[in-house]
Amino acid sequence: MAMKKYQATAVVVLCSGKVKLTKDQAASRSHLLEQVNKKGVFKIVDTIQFKAGENFSFDGEIPKGIADDLEAVDGKSSSVSEVTIDEIVNVIAGLDVDSETDYIAPGKPNLEVIKGFIKNDVTQEQCDEAYALFEKQSNND
């Protein structure tokens, strides 16, 4: 795995993996870390915590329970927690079929509107798959 840069948007607790920290961050957590190299990379040996707004790099498995509390530093949403088709279907169900903003063409929900409701990135393929499922569910009701 490669180091990924994150910013905590709420209190984040990590129990394992490797982190890259600033000298100040490492100093306050030194008893919970084992230095891996001189570039600020540490192995987590005991539970560590980050406050909202703190930046750090992480190499390890992000627990699903905290995925929503992390945002990639590059401004993109963390892809740790993948969006599900059912989540997209729920958004589509709330769109106004007659709205030129919500739909760009009949049967074609506006991807940008959907992205506005879902924190993670959504692809056009996911949107199309979700709309097909939405139509199928609507026809079964």
Walk me through this protein's architecture.
By secondary structure, this protein is α+β, with helices and mostly antiparallel strands. The protein has two domains: 4-72, no CATH class; 85-140, no CATH class. The protein contains four helices and ten strands. Strands 4-5-3-7-1-8 form a six-stranded antiparallel β-sheet, with no helix packed on it. A two-stranded antiparallel sheet has the order 2-6. Strands 9-10 form a two-stranded antiparallel sheet. α2 (85-93) crosses α4 (124-140). The longest helix is centred in the last third of the chain and has 17 residues, at 124-140. The chain starts with a strand and ends with a helix. 20% of the residues are buried.
Produce the secondary structure layout.
Elements: E1 4-8, E2 12-14, E3 18-20, H1 23-28, E4 33-35, E5 41-44, E6 48-50, E7 55-59, E8 70-72, H2 85-93, E9 103-105, E10 108-109, H3 111-117, H4 124-140
Antiparallel strand pairs: 1-7, 1-8, 2-6, 3-5, 3-7, 4-5, 9-10
Question: What is shown here, in short?
Answer:
The protein is of the alpha+beta class and 141 residues long. 28% of the residues lie in helices and 24% in strands.
Strand order of the largest sheet: 4-5-3-7-1-8
Unreliable stretches? 75-80
Question: Structurally, how many domains make up the residues?
Answer: 2
The computed structural class is alpha+beta
Radius of gyration: 20 Å
State the end-to-end distance.
45 Å
Q: Could you state the order of secondary-structure elements as H and E?
A: EEEHEEEEEHEEHH
Query: What is the helix content?
Result: 25-40%
Find the count of extended strands (DSSP E, 2+ residues): 10
What is the tally of helical segments? 4
The major beta sheet can be summarized as: 6 strands, antiparallel
Based on CA inertia axes, which overall geometry fits? elongated
| Beta fraction | 15-25%
